[in-house]
Design brief:
The structure holds two protein chains of two kinds.
Chain A: H1 3-19, E1 38-43, E2 49-53, H2 62-76, E3 83-86, H3 99-108, E4 110-111, E5 136-140, E6 148-153, E7 159-163
Parallel strand pairs in A: 2-3, 4-7
Antiparallel strand pairs in A: 1-2, 5-6, 6-7
Chain B: H1 3-38, H2 47-75, H3 81-86, H4 106-127, H5 133-161, H6 165-178, H7 190-197, H8 204-221, H9 244-258
Helix pairs in contact in B: 1-2, 1-7, 2-5, 4-5, 4-6, 4-8
The chains are: A alpha/beta, B mainly alpha.
């Protein structure tokens, strides 16, 4: 590996660290890296930094805010000329939510997504993020944001969100 | 330039124009249906359904943005998604006539949604393997969303149809009234045929068969009966609309028409 390649690696790793601090505007306990929204960080042959972002849902209103906050975070760290690229394929899946992201969602009171392969089946028992009971019921497949479904727990009586699998 | 090359360039250009028209049809159908569903916000029978319809609307408008942006690029006249959505006349919209039909009661909204969801399932599934990579990417994403839209609408269709006397009566009435718009869904014209021949879009005949099977199975579960004839194929995708589209656009376009270029 050449010196230039190693320098590029160090720079890219620094940018990944930086992006781990950019919160999702609707669920600020998780970062855009936790959600699998950042697809790549590359040093282009043009010398500029290329960052690939993918929208979660076609109509997610957070997409524009994420773009702005990413650009601002990069500019603040000295990457004002970084190029943000929209990546549509392959389509985002909730399977890309990292283990760390899942743990943060659960701690925040949002049940993490089941594997996307199960998206078309009857949902498996979803554990209540508050009391851990499996005696829960889906109230609606649609919750407070496009990425969440609405559940209620029969054991502790509390409503909660589940991060949908798609 | 040799005449053979000139001919090839002309064919390429006209294929691009046909593709632009095809993408506009998809985008306009999503946009108009998304706008219709938005009219339910604050009015749905229950909070959960209010959120559900708003979520569907959001997905559809998101799909419309991706599609209309692409159509604007193909057109090459500098129009972006906003110019296409807010500054075109009704006859320039190429959405399916079914999408612009008024919400009516909850049963009518569900029947309209279920028919379009089942149509989109076939179209997006075919487009996910399109020779056009941009359209394939948009469709693969939209397909995931359409799957749960369809789960929502088909579940409701069955609950309402196989429900009370009142819900059954209203759902059958909605089906009887909207069925005539379904002839347009899979009636190919020259744009559809060119797209299918170029491997860009799925052949409508095969898709129509799968659609019919799905619809029949859902109707059976819902104890509803499809009307006999589909009669007249409407021409929304050619820009000939029912009077309802003009009213919808009047509301949707009001701000940009009154204050051109207004921004949030």
């Amino acid at each position: 590996m050449s010196v230039a390649e190693r320098l590029a690696d160090v720079r890219e790793e620094r940018v990944w660290q930086l992006l781990r601090q950019v919160p999702d505007p609707e669920i600020p306990v998780v970062s855009i890296v936790d959600l699998g929204i950042v697809r790549y960080v590359r040093s282009g042959s043009d010398g500029r930094l290329h960052v690939g972002l993918t929208p979660t849902y076609s109509g997610c209103p957070a997409t524009a805010v994420i773009r702005e906050s990413t650009q601002a975070a990069l500019a603040a760290a000295g990457f004002a000329d970084a190029l943000l690229e929209e990546v549509l394929a392959p389509a985002w899946t909730s399977d890309w939510v990292t283990a760390e992201g899942r743990a943060k969602l659960a701690a925040f009171g949002i049940a993490p997504p089941a594997p996307a392969a199960e998206a078309d089946r009857e949902p498996r028992a979803v554990g209540c993020p508050r009391c851990g009971s499996l005696a829960t019921r889906r109230v609606s497949e649609f919750g407070s944001t496009p990425c969440k479904a609405h559940y209620t727990c029969s054991a502790c009586g509390e409503p909660f969100d589940q991060f949908k699998c798609i | 330039m040799s005449s053979a090359v000139a001919g090839a360039v002309r064919r390429e250009r006209s294929l691009e124009q046909a593709l632009c028209r095809y993408v506009l049809r998809l985008g306009d159908t999503s946009l108009v249906l998304g706008q219709r569903l938005g009219e339910w916000i604050g009015h749905a029978p229950a909070l959960e359904e209010d959120l559900g319809l708003a979520n569907l609307s959001l997905d559809l408008i998101g799909q419309a943005r991706l599609l209309l942006s692409y159509a604007g690029e193909l057109e090459g006249r500098g129009r972006d998604e906003d110019a296409l959505a807010f500054l075109r006349e009704p006859e320039e919209f190429l959405n399916l006539t079914l999408a612009e039909q008024p919400n009516g009661d909850f049963a009518a909204t569900i029947v309209r949604q279920w028919l379009i969801d089942a149509w989109q399932l076939e179209i997006y599934e075919g487009l996910a393997g399109s020779a056009d990579s941009r359209l394939a990417a948009i469709a693969a994403k939209a397909l995931k969303e359409t799957r749960y839209h369809y789960r929502f609408s088909s579940n409701w269709l069955i609950r309402l149809g196989d429900g009370t006397e009142e819900s059954r009566r209203r759902t059958q009435r909605a089906l009887d009234s909207l069925w005539r718009f379904t002839a347009e869904l899979f009636a190919p014209d020259e744009v559809d045929e060119r797209m299918a021949a170029a491997g860009i879009a799925p052949a409508l005949a095969a898709a129509a068969g799968r659609f019919a099977t799905r619809i029949a199975s859902d109707l059976g579960a819902a104890t509803l009966t499809a009307p006999e004839s589909r009669a007249y194929p409407w021409h929304g995708k050619r820009g000939v609309h029912t009077e309802h589209l003009g009213h919808l656009l009047g509301e949707m376009q009001h701000l940009q028409r009154t204050y051109p270029g207004a921004r949030w």
